Amino acid sequence: MxxxxxxxxxxxxxxxxxxxxxxxxxxxxxxTEITQYSALYDEIYTEWSPNEKVSAEVAIGASIAGARxxxxxxxxxxxVASDPLYTAAYTGVNGGLxxxxxxxxxxxxxxxxxxxxxxxxxxxxxxxxxxxxSECLSFTKLGFELSEKxxxxxxxxxxxxxxxxxxxxxxxxxxxxxNEYKKNMPKFVAMPNTARPRHxxxxxxxxxLTEWAETCGINxxxxxxxxxxxxxxxxxxxxxxxALGENASYLKLGMVNPLPVRLIKDFASKADVLYVIExxxxxxxxxxxKNGVEVIGKELFSFCxxxxxxxxxxxxxxxxxxIMSLQExxxxxxxxxxxxxxxxxxxxxxxxxxCVISGDIGCYTLSAGPPLSxxxxxxxxxxxxxxxxxxxxxxxxxxxxxxxxxGDSTFAHSGIxxxxxxxxxxxxxxxxxxxxxxxxMTGHQDNPTTGKTLKKEAAPVLDLVALCxxxxxxxxxxxxxxxxxxxxxxxxxxxxxxxxxxxxxxxPCVLLKDTVLGDSLxxxxxxxxxxxxxxxxxxxxxxxxxxxxVIDENQCVGCGQCTGLCRxxxxxxxx
Length: 575
Description:
The chain has a seven-stranded mixed beta sheet, with helices on both faces. Strands 15-14-16-17-19-18 form a six-stranded parallel beta sheet, sandwiched between helices. About 35% of the residues lie in helices and about 20% in strands. The protein folds into four domains: about 1-215, Thiamin diphosphate (ThDP)-binding fold, Pyr/PP domains (Rossmann fold, 3-Layer(aba) Sandwich), CATH 3.40.50; about 220-315, Rossmann fold (3-Layer(aba) Sandwich); about 340-505, Rossmann fold (3-Layer(aba) Sandwich), CATH 3.40.50; about 520-575, 2-Layer Sandwich (Alpha-Beta Plaits), CATH 3.30.70.20. The protein is globular and about 80 Å long.
């Protein structure tokens, strides 16, 4: 039977069919749906962990127990998980262990571009790279087989286009799998005297995997026109095929670490000119040149962003695309926070403090742009608190004031340790936790502060007030960010105190189905002076028409933030 599946959905189906018992992840676009679809299978225990390091450790523990286990994350999440995964490459597995990492070429929803093949090379871990949904399913199942055959974790590298495109997949039944756990200290206890021989094992394993890569079916040659040879992998293979068709021959690599040598040399001998087409880094290109194979690669194709079919056709066939141009100037449409978003009121107040705002990863990062322009830094998950601490120490008591801002899910992810550090080392700045009762940016996943698990079962709620007090924060208070004046007053008071302080801005996301919304508001045209103060918060429900402010009743959720701004009481409820 065949089904049309999203790439991420196909990976989850691969988990199911392979007999996976445990999937533990942290949400991150473009990988999130892998775990969400896995949760639909009752046979798989599935959870959201506080961060990727924890999720990887959970999966490793399940593998040691003898179960097949998996974890999924985006590329920057792999940085967080790298500590346990690099050691797992030494210890190996008991049950198969697959790590799915979704890269984001083009930076559609991330703070950087990163080629995760670098992690595979450095950790000496095999990596497979599917080029469509069908391969997402089959490569995932193959990953568990390779994991157990070669005693290693296995990476599956996805990308935004593969994760979020659909294709036909052959559906099979589930197999059940469980190995017995047997105590094996030299293998599973990583310390110097056990790691030294395991490193030798890793090097031998890579030699064996390289040999496997020479003849495996997922590295395949498609001979057409021998004048042009293309070595490629993943979604770049699809782009090359669409651009060049039968004008070229292809070596399509399904395993991108380790890479074959003899197979590449044999293919190179059959092509007049050889190109390497790969997104982001020159991994395949460098491997070819290292082994004496001359190729054309990054001198034509950029290290930055996604590869496109028209670029390939232009660079290789000198074929220019036919492009229709539009003469009208189209206004920019940057992403904005939703109408009624509590983050909007919070960041309006934060800007009014005049402090430097050390920001973090979440919906609230959108406040960096106009009209709020209320964020000075954004580095990585959890960095807001630690960076604010560093800024505060560098400026001193009489320097610029700084406020660290972090979401509830991000605080649980990696902000808690930063706050512990700040308290321990005598901080004197304010941390704001923007608690909207969800992990909003990635699609409203639950987290330790929401009281629900991934499968919507009841769970203990992480009490943020009690937590902050327990680690020694002397001043903790909760505010409603929709009340602009009270929020601003609280922030100013905490900044002026000069003490370590936490302000929890608590208001559930307006998109949560159980959030109670108000009635839409309206503007009294006679009372409106068109002073434009209400536009300062950048609410998409507030527009201008005929020289007056107007509220779009289809967008307004009655949050009341704008009423706190209007000095003329022109904004009121609808009759």
